[in-house]
Predict the 3D structure of the following.
Amino acid sequence: MTENSTGKDITLRIAQQPEADALLGRSPLAALVGMLLDQQVPMEWAFTGPYTLAGRMGGDDLDAREIAAYDPEAFTELFTAKPALHRYPVAMATRVRQLCRFLVEEYDGEASAVWADATTGAELLKRLRALPGFGTQKAQIFLALLGKRFGVRPPGWREAAGPYGEEGSYRSVADITGPESLAEVRAVKQRIKAAAKAARRAT
């Protein structure tokens, strides 16, 4: 747990693992890395990744400067060691290093600087979309996570987050507060996929 901009403790339940969720709550970089890893694997696997990576690096948190300067092959081995950190560990190791290099170059290695002084939701979305590995959808989901769970709420944040910013939408990790909401998010995702599949068949 840590404190957000509203002065309240943050308790996340995304990884469904207390230590991993505690790291996500206190470490902006861990939250960003978890979001980056959240594709083509279960959400719990993706968001446990930062905790596992920190442990394999011999610490209890992630540091953008350390990762950016890490030997590429050795860093990849941290991802590929069993159990692998992702279904595509080699590619994701590269993306995490690219993200950290960007943070070092553009934000002096401070992940929270990406959103700390954003004056509008649109500006924050633009900053998130500029991050390596963050397309529009991933950026909107993370923006919603910042707003709903971290209290980062510049004017227009819900609109910038699109459908993910809606209250009680259960569309993404931003709406997960425990096992029940995780199951609901999964159910909504399945319904959206089924509807999209049916639409493709219809055309």
Remarks:
- Residues 49 and 175 are 19 Å apart (CA to CA).
